[in-house]
């Protein structure tokens, strides 16, 4: 191989999702030098497609010896294996880490995607200059991660931060049941016929996607704005629990839903303020992430250098 990422300062990270792979290359100053993304075939197994993608990254970025991979699932702290994955359950059945290392001839670090994104935001994004942050990602799933004293808090087995499993009503409904992208769309469709003035009513109901709701809200569609504000209120309810329990310095919100920016963030802050212990709320900042869709891959790249 040519120079390793330790020799030339290059850091490589990959984010795996159920629909795509994303790779980033950070230069020696940890600036984003290059990035690319491909869609994947959900009818084929993930790992062979991922190995092909890593080879594409080598061709594009030049050879490297270390790689960080962010995955949507719980990663066992001691073994590095994926212990649970809602969206890519096949990862639970294989030794993901060993298979990638052997096939790609790389030293690989595997991390939960929310943990990786939190680490990226902590070092290079909205969490810069903080000692402690709580990170929330709102997208296909709902994740959370905690950075304490500059380190990812993984818990006893590596499963800490499951923000999406916080109950938001007395029946035990989980946050992810209402604010994941699929469930925002589901709630929108359920109320679809109650507001015929919405621009969304011109779309086939079964084809509405989260991006359609966000775009309509940005065009000041009252119905779409209401749906996003209610989403933010649910998130704010759960964030209030984090504030009350941890008195955390900074809460960073990222993920697909933040394309809506203040429409969601303002509702999050407002509801969190209502339900938080006032002195704790006043010492906490709730802000939007800065790394956007690259957050998890950037964090994975940084973590590859720490292993």
Sum this structure up briefly.
This protein has 307 residues and is an alpha/beta fold. It contains eleven helices and twelve strands. It starts with a helix and ends with a helix.
Molecular structure report:
With 307 residues, this protein is α/β, with parallel strands linked by helices. The protein has two domains: 5-119 and 294-306, Nucleotidyltransferase, domain 5 (2-Layer Sandwich); 129-289, ATPase, nucleotide binding domain (Nucleotidyltransferase, domain 5, 2-Layer Sandwich), CATH 3.30.420.40. It has eleven helices and twelve strands. The strands form three sheets. Strands 3-2-1-4-7 form a five-stranded mixed sheet. Strand 9 and strand 10 form a beta hairpin. The longest helix has 25 residues, at 222-246. The two termini are 20 Å apart. 45% of the residues are buried.
